[in-house]
Design brief:
340 residues, 6-stranded mixed β-sheet, alpha/beta, single chain, binds zinc ion
């Protein structure tokens, strides 16, 4: 019912693509990260809570929305969105055609996140799952506890008049940290300019977050000596960092589970915080769907597919995408939101 095509996943019954990467007529979008929401479609359909964020990414696009759970007939298929728990407005796409149900999960997580609706398992025959962190080494602690670690580290640095810089994704991760800190931060949190537009979109959408202040051109040195600054990883090693002499630098990512990565990249601190499912959550979710067939995409897809076939007896397959960018989190694709 849904198959790979040159522009990505295509549903022939409804004549639409899910998260296409090429120009198509109708795009059904799971969420606004750039490797799921590309330019060039004639029209976009997304879950209503994600509209403001998608609008920031695609200012010229024709965007329609559906509430979570609302059904729409598209061609011969029926389509609905269900919360994926990944970032604000993220959705799984349920497609039904002649009694057969497929679910494209997009990126998802099962941990509580104050910025978005919790993941909702959807029963289906075929489940298309991500595998960004599809290895048993990836296990997460509760997000609120990790953000408490960030807060404690900020206070330590502040006592030494040392700025604290947390590198994190511009869309989703930064706002999740700000939302977790909304009760406990006792000073505004400073944002690199790249963080501002998406944070505004979250505020417009009604997400409560800690107070923020944008790092301006004139701010440097003493003005930021006690600041907690959120910045994209792409700012690291650029002249922008010179305004933060002596800064302690941390990185908030699921990749920080692997100590070697942290050491190799010389972060002072790694905060294990991901907007993707960890290994246990991937397995639990696949079971919750009741799917007999699981197609795996993104990240560690071969490893997860093999495990499911061997231990669960499921029919599995791999869907290749143009973006296998999760491992590229430490590379150039820093604004895609993947691998986070
Ligand atoms: Zn994503």
């Amino acid at each position: 019912m849904i198959a790979s095509s040159p522009a990505g996943l295509f549903c022939a019954a409804g004549d639409f693509h899910v998260d296409p990467w090429g120009p198509v007529e109708r795009a059904v979008i799971t969420h606004a990260h750039s490797d799921h929401a590309s330019h060039g479609a004639a029209s976009y359909l997304c879950a209503a809570p994600g509209a403001a964020v998608l609008r920031r990414r695609l200012p010229e696009a024709h965007i329609e929305t559906l509430d979570y759970g609302e059904r729409r007939a598209i061609g011969d298929a029926h389509v609905s969105f269900h919360p994926a728990g990944h970032i604000l407005g993220s959705a799984q796409v349920r497609v039904e055609h002649r009694g057969e149900v497929w679910v494209v999960s997009g990126d998802y997580k099962r941990q509580p996140d104050p910025t978005c609706a919790p993941f909702e398992p959807v029963r289906c025959h075929t489940f298309i799952t991500e595998a960004t962190f599809g290895l048993p080494i990836y296990t997460w602690d509760p997000g609120a506890a990790v953000v408490e670690e960030i807060l404690a580290w900020w206070r330590e640095n502040r006592d030494q008049d040392r700025p604290s810089v947390v590198f994190c994704y511009v869309l989703g991760k930064a706002q999740r940290i700000l939302a977790e800190l909304r009760e406990t931060a006792d000073a505004p949190i400073h944002l690199h300019g790249a963080m501002a537009a998406m944070t505004d979109a979250y505020r417009e959408s009604g997400v409560a977050m800690a107070a923020t202040e944008r790092v301006t051109e004139s701010m440097r040195g003493k003005a930021l000596a006690r600041a907690l600054v959120l910045a994209p990883l792409s700012a690291r090693g650029t002249p922008w960092m010179r305004r933060l002499p002596g800064a302690s630098v941390g990185f908030a990512s699921g990749l920080m589970r692997v100590r070697g990565v942290r050491r190799q990249r010389a972060f002072d601190r790694g905060f294990v915080l991901s907007d993707h499912a960890d290994w246990r959550a991937l397995l639990a979710t696949i079971e919750d769907t009741g799917a007999s067939r699981v197609l795996v995409t993104h990240g560690w897809s071969e490893a997860l597919a093999r495990y499911l076939a061997e231990t669960r007896g499921l029919e599995t397959g791999i869907i290749r995408t143009r973006f296998e960018g999760e491992a590229g989190e430490l590379g150039d694709a820093v604004d895609s939101g993947e691998g986070s």
